[in-house]
Design a protein that fits this description.
- One of its GO terms (molecular function) is damaged DNA binding.
- Belongs to the DNA mismatch repair MutS family.
- Keywords: ATP-binding, DNA damage, DNA repair, DNA-binding, Nucleotide-binding.
- This is DNA mismatch repair protein.
- The protein is of the alpha/beta class.
- Helices cover 36% and strands 16% of the residues.
- The protein has 39 helices and 35 strands.
- A 7-stranded mixed sheet has the order 21-31-32-33-29-34-35, with helices on both faces. Strands 19-18-15-16-17-20 form a 6-stranded mixed sheet, sandwiched between helices. The chain has a 5-stranded antiparallel sheet with strand order 4-3-2-1-5.
- A hairpin with a 2-residue loop joins strand 22 and strand 23.
- The radius of gyration is 39 Å and the shape is globular.
- The N terminus is likely disordered.
Length: 1289
């Protein structure tokens, strides 16, 4: 196996917001390369060089120049003269011209003819003046020297000195040196014992320089000695990264978690004998501006450990590496500076960049890892902890893992919140040799490139992706907000782009949201994004708060506005580059967007969707940095965002805001799990893509009566006549992989970039893995199509949902002919077994041609053999193969004298002679060519078949969509069997006249999330509910004892409505419902103390949202409103809110409360007074004991019996007794308070709802810090006025 060497190809190590690199050295001592001012020191043992280096042999010294010549060399007199300089490493002379002379350093700047510029101390160099090449005497030091030993690299040592000087003289240039060596090829077995052999070395002769491209993005170009830039790639990311690669050496910044290195196969080398160093020149390319060395910016909790990384080590690790790390990385602690030298605290300090001292860069060294991914320095500490790896021997932190563990370890690191940069070898030693011969470059190492940037939101590989259906979304957001502008109370425009990388799905949209961002919060609570992409410092405080409070520790990516987070115009321009093919007319591509996906075309032509397009632009830029844009976009699916904002003229879904999703525990419980959730109750899907669709259905119930009826009909079919078909359908798909993700991975496999690129050198058989994915996709598509075809008899009713789904060409795509063609093309099982495709005849004409040629040649050989048998009159003459010699004519020894003259003897065997004839040799030559052509075509057949498969990607996705919907419908049919008690199909009251009111009638209503197998039969007490309709109140005021079941009833009603509008059966004997457009649920007590919001303020803010957004068709469930303040104030606010909802909004609602006076004094016909029944008895000490009946009963409850709950909680009996006495005293004095006369009501009588209007103003004003004091005063006044109003009435 060929050795693997450090890349000299261009590698994008620097981005606009980060330096994705890793720095490491063999010891804390300075670089072994001598400098003009530092004496040589004996190299110390290190992990990279465990044995002391031998003293390098002294090279032959050239004759010393005469004193007068030396003086001439050191002044400016030679500026402008041409000369040749000898490079020992390359054993070559390079011509150039002296451009300038620096008297302080006594160095001349030489520009070579190939464009390279170098600072040279001519007194220490071997050179020739152009005019003296032919006649200069040997003693003048200009005679071409003899070929030096191959290991002597004095030239590189001098380069290190020049780099140090350049670093001191220019603040914009950072130079560094490291060890250098030449490479040898050959096989090695030392990789298999990599943990025992820690000898590593650096072997690259390359220059790394910053480059500003046309978009002003900063990149790193790894240049050859000829100065030719290779493999340019611009990257940007704002958070820490772990960089690692396969068998390569990468340079990295320690600004985040230090970097890692990779290199060629390991072998022991005496680094000291090389007498060399490595130069890294960070210079501006194609620009005259200043260049900053950028390092990744930390996110959240990861920033602090980074800055004090040396202090974070503990135990044995701290004892082993602590002192070394503290000395080596002082610039990360108290001495931390940004690229401009500014310290933290400076107003201009940029935390995204890091200043790297020149002496640190000069200590860089490399390593050999073979086929292992390995980590150094801070990276080593991270992966040793996170992956439970062992450190290798030596002073330098160093650990790694073999290539076979790549996917599992990459996924572990990404899931834990790290950004992982993958560097791979993209050239073999043979390709390097060929490139050197063809281009004349002097590269000594193979190319290596960044092939992937992986985070928890950009994972595309890993076994858990096929096992765990939960998506990890990227969430990009833009907003119509200007810094410093006054808050707009009329709403804000929010643009959103949601990306599921694992399925290549983009959800794009724009909506109007209220000042509290309830629409945005609803989306965030539903999807729980893994990463957020946003323009830095361009979002309003309210939006930033929503992003923080409705997510679960996502990675935050702050992009530079316009430059990185593109505006609409830039986004449109970039999108056109992805979809505009080379044959698209220029005029058409500029003015017509028909070649774009339908949704993008609509957004662009609408003209007012600039924020949606900008959000899409931010996500595209981020995907470009992760090298995923070209993988995802060609076969991407673009979906329209289901509008969750305030204004939605054509509403097709019920809106469930964040409070409803969380309080009802619809998708996840309070701990982030699934236990007890509505999703867990309904999830009986057998496919991963079906589970994802079910979640979307639950989070967005239908607000379309016809669509609900169609789902009900399909579910009834699967519960009735189609039950056996449903069982067989589930059985057929039970072992199906996650086809949506598998297809997306296969669609992206044809991308020519990243790790799927043909140029990436991997030890594993990538083509075999791709073949297994292809055959798995084929089998999966065949299983899905057959499963759908097997239940096609259920499509009897025209226009039904099942008819639309299962009718070929209507819902079910025409894929049978494609599958038949691919099935006839090759044997799927045989291909899996042997690891390659052997196409059947007729599959590929280009492959068939050499096959036919081979058959004809073999036939000619057989025919020729028969002729030779007749000629020699011996039927025993035959062909034999000996080693590489094939089709040798074997003739018995007895016929040796009678063979024709054209027989050429090739070999002998006892009793036989073996010959070739000119005819046989010609046929063998033709056969060899035909077989080579056949093998070449065979290598391309897999890619051809995959490309043929991908041409129909829309059909395969449509097939997945149909199967997912059928899976969900069957799951809902099964879920109804697990409800406690009877179930029914809800009756949906589609429309009603102006005199009708919203309706909700339920008889024997059970609980949707209580399973029949979790409780004994009849354990749950069902209830009858009647709200709205003729003769019924629209609101229920619910009282009852603590723990009596009030909150349970509220959740029960809300969840049942969601079930009904999904289209599922509900746990009741009968259920009638008018469609609900939005559900508001105010339950529980919580504060947002970090935002300065108390429990009561949060409660009032949520209530204000209900009052401002609810419509006649909404459902409101308020649980114990007003408990966050005094009894009188809370009761006053609760009464005012209730009255507003009943008389102004006129919606359906449930209002549970412990304010019994509120219920006792209510005489409104639109309000029904109910309570949860209980039985009271006397217990020990005369204390009341309550038996809960959990039955909804008309009338109000006299008290809450809180002392009973205290008894159940274990409060001491003496305390309970005293509490009971005080309760009696309070109740006795409650009714004796003197009422305030109506004359004191003042202006409160002028406007019946003045208090509630003022409440709106108070809550809205609380968002402004400067108005909070005034708002608190106003809140106190509103409470007093509301109390006076209630008491007065």
């Amino acid at each position: 196996m060929a050795s693997r060497r450090l890349s000299n190809g261009r590698s994008p190590l620097v981005r606009k917001q980060s330096q994705i690199t890793a720095f490491f050295s063999s010891s804390p001592s300075p670089s072994p390369s001598p400098t003009p001012t530092a004496p040589k020191s004996k190299p110390k043992p290190s992990p990279l060089n465990p044995r002391p280096a031998r003293k390098p042999p002294s090279p032959p010294k050239p004759p010393s120049p005469r004193p007068e010549e030396k003086e001439k060399e050191k002044d400016a007199a030679v500026v402008g003269r041409r000369l040749r300089v000898y490079w020992p490493l390359d054993d070559a002379w390079y011509e150039g011209r002296v451009e300038a002379y620096d008297g302080e350093s006594r160095r001349h700047r030489v520009r070579y003819d190939d464009g390279e510029v170098e600072e040279v101390d001519l007194a220490k160099e071997r050179y020739e003046w152009a005019a003296a090449v032919a006649a200069a005497p040997a003693d003048e030091g200009v005679t071409p020297p003899p070929r030096p030993p191959a290991r002597k690299l004095r030239r590189l040592r001098r380069m290190s000195d020049a780099a140090t000087t350049a670093a001191k003289s220019s603040p914009d240039v950072v130079d560094g040196g490291g060890e250098e060596e030449e490479e040898t090829g050959g096989d090695s077995t030392e990789d298999e014992d990599w943990k025992k052999d820690a000898v590593v070395e650096d072997d690259s002769d390359e220059m790394v320089e910053l480059d500003d491209d046309d978009d002003d993005d900063e990149v790193v170009a790894v240049k050859t000695r000829k100065g030719k830039t290779k493999n340019t790639l611009s990257m940007s990311a704002p958070t820490p990264k772990l960089a690692f690669g396969l068998g390569s050496g990468s340079i990295g910044g320690s600004g985040s978690i230090g970097g890692s290195m990779l290199s060629k196969k390991r072998r022991k080398v005496d680094a000291g004998a090389l007498d060399c160093a490595k130069k890294f020149s960070f210079e501006p390319a194609n620009t005259a501006g200043n260049v900053e060395l950028k390092l990744p910016m930390s996110c959240g909790q990861r920033e602090q450990p980074l800055e004090n990384a040396h202090a974070a080590l503990t135990g044995e690790i701290a004892e082993r590496f602590g002192q070394r790390q503290a000395e080596k990385f002082k610039f990360l602690g108290e001495g931390r500076k940004d690229a401009k030298g500014r310290r933290p605290g400076n107003p201009g300090y940029d935390p995204r960049t890091l200043f790297l001292p020149p002496q640190f860069l000069n200590s860089l060294t490399g390593g050999q890892m073979g086929k292992f991914y390995e980590f150094y320095e801070m990276d080593a500490h991270v992966v040793a902890k996170e992956l439970d790896l062992q450190y290798m021997k030596g002073e330098q932190p160093h650990c790694g893992f073999p290539e076979k563990n790549f996917e599992v370890n990459l996924e572990k690191l990404a899931k834990k919140g790290y950004r992982v940069l993958v560097v791979e070898q993209t050239e073999t030693p043979e390709q390097l040799d060929l490139r050197r011969k063809e281009t004349g470059v002097k590269d000594k190492v193979v190319r290596r490139e960044i092939c992937a940037m992986v985070t928890k939101g950009t994972l595309t590989e890993g076994e858990s992706l096929l096992a765990n259906p939960d998506p990890s979304y990227l969430f990009s957001v833009a907003e119509s907000y200007q810094c410093g502008s006054e808050k707009n109370q009329d709403g804000h425009t929010i643009g959103v782009c949601i990306v599921d990388v694992s399925t290549s799905k983009f959800i794009v949209g724009q909506f109007q949201d209220d000042p509290e961002r309830h629409g945005l919060c609803s989306i965030l609570s539903e999807i729980r994004p893994a990463e957020i992409i946003k323009p830095a410092k361009m979002l309003s405080p309210e939006t930033e708060k929503a992003l923080k409070s409705n997510t679960r520790d996502p990675l935050i990516n702050n992009l530079l506005p316009s430059l990185e987070f593109w505006d609409a115009e830039k986004t449109i321009h970039e999108i056109k580059q992805y979809y505009c093919s080379s044959d698209t007319p220029v005029a058409s591509s500029q003015n017509n967007f028909a070649y774009l996906p339908d949704l993008l075309n609509e957004l662009i032509e609408a003209g007012d969707k600039t924020y949606a397009l900008s959000a899409l632009g931010g996500s595209l830029f981020y995907l470009r940095q992760a090298l995923l844009d070209e993988k995802l976009l060609p076969c991407a699916v673009f979906e329209r965002l289901t509008c969750s904002g305030l204004t939605n003229p054509i509403r097709k879904h019920m809106i469930l805001d964040a409070a409803a999703l969380e309080n009802l525990e619809i998708l996840e419980n309070s701990n982030g799990g699934l236990s007890g959730t509505l999703y867990a109750q309904l999830n009986h899907c057998v496919t991963g893509f079906g589970k994802r669709l079910l979640k979307r259905w639950i989070a967005r119930p239908l607000y379309d009566g016809q669509a609900i009826l169609q789902r009900q009909s399909a579910i009834a079919t699967f519960k009735g006549s189609g039950h056996e078909c449903a069982v067989q359908f589930r059985k057929d798909l039970s072992r199906l992989p996650d086809m949506e993700r598998l297809l997306a991975r296969l669609f992206s496999s044809c991308d020519k970039n990243g790790r799927s690129s043909k140029s990436v050198v991997l030890y594993e058989d990538v083509s075999k893995r791709l073949l297994h994915q292809f055959t798995a996709a084929l089998r999966g598509c065949q299983q899905m199509f057959q499963a759908c075809s097997s239940i096609s008899m259920l499509t009897s009713t025209e226009g039904s949902l099942l008819n639309n789904l299962l009718s070929p060409g209507k819902g079910l795509p025409h894929v049978s002919s494609i599958l038949d063609h691919l099935r006839d093309a090759f044997d799927w099982s045989e291909a899996d077994r042997i690891g390659r495709i052997i196409p059947h005849k007729g599959c590929d004409p280009e492959y068939d041609a050499p096959c036919v040629a081979i058959e004809e040649i073999e036939s000619s050989l057989k025919k020729y053999l028969k002729e030779q048998r007749r000629l020699l009159n011996d039927s025993t003459v035959k062909y034999v193969n000996v080693g590489k010699d094939v089709y040798l004519i074997e003739v018995p020894e007895s016929l040796g004298g009678s063979v024709p003259r054209n027989y050429e003897l090739q070999s002998t065997k006892k009793g036989f002679y073996r010959y070739w004839t000119p005819e046989v040799k010609e046929l063998i030559s033709e056969l060899s060519k035909a077989e080579a052509e056949k093998e070449a075509k065979l290598k391309c057949i897999l890619q051809k078949l995959i490309e043929l498969f991908i041409e129909h990607h829309s059909k395969w996705r449509q097939l997945v969509s149909v199967v997912a919907e059928l899976d969900v419908l069957i799951s809902l049919a099964i879920a109804s069997e697990f409800f406690e008690g009877p179930t029914c199909c809800p009756f949906i009251k589609e429309s009603y006249g102006p005199d009708d009111t919203p309706t909700l009638h339920a008889r024997n209503l059970g609980h949707p999330t209580i399973r029949s197998d979790s409780l004994g039969s009849g354990s749950f007490v069902p209830n009858d509910i009647k709200m709205g309709g003729p003769g019924n109140a629209s609101f229920i005021v619910l009282t009852g004892p603590n723990m009596g079941g009030k909150s349970t009833l509220l959740r029960q009603v809300c969840l049942t409505i969601i079930l009904a509008q999904i289209g599922a059966n509900v746990p009741a004997e009968s259920f009638e419902l008018s469609l609900v457009d939005r559900m508001f649920v105010r339950m529980g007590a919580r504060d947002q103390i970090m935002a300065g919001q108390s429990t009561f303020l949060v409660e009032l803010m949520e209530t204000a949202s209900v009052l401002s957004s609810a419509t006649t068709n909404s459902l409101v469930a308020l649980d114990e409103l007003g408990r966050g303040t005094s009894t009188s104030d809370g009761q006053a606010i609760a009464a005012s809110v209730l009255e507003y909802l009943v008389h102004r909004v006129q919606c359906l609602g449930l209002f549970s409360t412990h304010y019994h006076r509120l219920a006792a004094e209510n005489e409104d016909s639109k309000v029904s007074l109910c309570h949860m029944a209980c039985e009271i008895s006397k217990g020990e000490g005369g204390l009341e004991e309550v038996t809960f009946l959990y039955k909804l009963t008309p009338g109000s409850c006299p008290k809450s019996y809180g002392v009973n709950v205290a008894r159940l909680a274990g409060i001491p009996a003496s305390v309970l007794q005293r509490a009971s006495e005080k309760s009696s005293d309070f109740e006795a004095s409650y009714g004796k308070r003197q009422r305030i006369t109506t004359n004191k009501l003042g202006c409160a009588q002028d406007d019946k709802f003045a208090a509630i209007k003022d409440l709106f103003r108070v809550v809205k004003a609380m968002h402004h810090r400067e108005e909070q004091a005034t708002s608190l005063s106003m809140l106190h006044d509103v409470q007093k006025r509301a109390k006076v109003q209630v008491i007065g009435e």
